[in-house]
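[step 3/7] fold_predict: job queued, chain A
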Amino acid sequence: MDHMQNYWLDEMERILKGVNKQDGYITTISRHYINDRLHNENYPDRVFDELDIVWAIAHGQIVEGFDSGDKGRNPEPERTIVGPAMSGDWIVAIVLLKTDKRFIVKTVFPVNDNPRYTKYIPNND
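[step 4/7] structure written:
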């Protein structure tokens, strides 16, 4: 859950560079989320679009880290980012670390009242 925590600030910086397509970094949103989750009536809480995700990454923080295989079948390390969407709702973005310069937002969902994530929201006592 705290895999490579000493590097999270650097990883966050690189993920954000990827969002902005700077210095050869690239961060994309998975087809799984865009095609299968976003605005799918079976997932009514998956309403966060690209702008929401970018905003959350730019204003959020890595709160969890998992190594390859830590969470079942994940072949790449994963980072959990908690940040605000454009609406002000707080979201969770799961980001895959594909290479040193390539990152994929695997999925996105609302924090809701989940204490696992609400503890990272400022002034949320």
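[step 5/7] annotate
The chain has a mean pLDDT of 93.
The chain has four helices and five strands.
exit 0
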